[in-house]
Write a structure and sequence with these properties.
Layout lengths: L6 H6 L6 E10 L4 H12 L4 E4 L6 H9 L6 E5 L33 H7 L2 H17 L4 E6 L10 H11 L2 E2 L6 H6 L4 H16 L7 E4 L8 H10 L4 E7 L6 H6 L3 H11 L2 H10 L2 E2 L2 H5 L6
Parallel strand pairs: 1-2, 1-7, 1-8, 2-3, 3-4, 4-5, 6-7
Helix pairs in contact: 5-6, 9-11, 9-12
């Protein structure tokens, strides 16, 4: 049975055939090379949203950059994992080994599976709360939260993260996908069933959700402007959270990841003003999480 028309899009005045996109930059503040990329993409104008990794070394500089652009749509990229071999970060709060948030070196676990296997749900909620609170204390006008590596998408953590967002008055990026779509995202059957049911529950609470998740590759280079055009041509109707990981080509980025060329290709694609013109001609409508934030229930 096909999904019913997204009520969030209906409230914003879109039709059932409209293709609506949030172009979202993940990992702002992960390293210095993300900052210059973000500034350039704001100037070009196609990027419509981004989120900051609060535990990372360049988060304070990212926050200062965002404060210089108060019109920008910004969220917190809730961070519970630290995936690189030689560039690591850890919790803002407790690093007590007993709570399971950290590995033997005292950093976040490098994989989502290790996090889910070891981290206490109460400690996770405390850490996520600290990340939100720090962003607010730094004067950021937040619109949403999303999760680094999708780490919060687990039955142990989802309800608490939703309540954190509700108290902060921000949107939770969560897709209204069916079981098959969740399986395609890598979930096992039990997890996919739980995620699909949870999405239905959130929508009954009146929370705005996205319909689709797509992402540019961030570990392989190439012509990502052409790839973006292809991906947009294939987009179905509904609201799509379109992920990119833009970063400038720097020695720092190359030292962090062997997949640096993918992040640079993401950046170069969205610096391409011809792509901006093509999107405008394509009929794709670009919005931000600030638009969805206006739809949040008052209570």
């Amino acid at each position: 049975m096909p999904k019913r028309f997204n009520p969030a899009l209906q409230q914003l005045g879109y039709s059932k055939t409209d293709r609506v996109v949030i172009f979202h930059a993940d990992d702002l503040g992960m390293c210095e090379s993300t900052l210059g990329a973000y500034t350039d993409l704001l100037e070009v104008g196609l990027l419509s949203s981004a989120s900051i990794m609060m535990p990372c070394a360049w988060a304070p500089a990212a926050a200062e950059l965002v404060r210089q652009h108060p019109q920008a749509d910004i969220g917190v990229h809730l961070t519970l994992t630290s995936e690189w071999d030689t560039y690591r970060w850890g919790p803002l709060g407790s690093r007590d080994p007993a709570n399971g948030l950290t590995d033997q070196q005292g950093y976040f676990h490098s994989s989502v599976a290790a996090l889910h296997a070891h981290a206490d749900a109460g400690a996770v909620m405390q850490e996520l709360g600290l990340q939100l609170e720090r962003a607010q204390a730094w004067g950021l006008n937040l619109s949403h939260i999303d999760a680094h590596m999708g780490a919060v998408a687990h039955p142990k953590y989802l309800p608490g993260s939703i309540e954190l967002a509700a108290r902060a008055g921000v949107v939770t990026m969560f897709p209204r996908m069916d079981v098959g779509a969740w399986r395609a995202q890598g979930f096992d059957l039990t997890g996919a069933l739980a995620a699909a049911a949870f999405g239905t529950y959130l929508e009954t609470r009146g929370l705005p959700l996205v319909d689709h998740l797509v992402s540019l590759p961030h570990d392989v280079g190439g012509d990502h402007a052409a790839l973006t055009r292809q991906m947009l041509a294939e987009l179905p109707p509904g609201l799509t959270h379109f992920i990119l990981h833009p970063a400038k080509d720097t020695p720092e980025l190359r030292a962090i990841t062997s997949g640096w060329a993918g992040r640079v290709a993401n950046y170069e694609a969205f610096c391409n003003r011809a792509l901006l013109d093509d999107v405008r001609r394509s009929g794709v409508q670009v919005i931000s999480y600030r638009d969805l934030q206006t739809l949040l229930p008052r209570s």
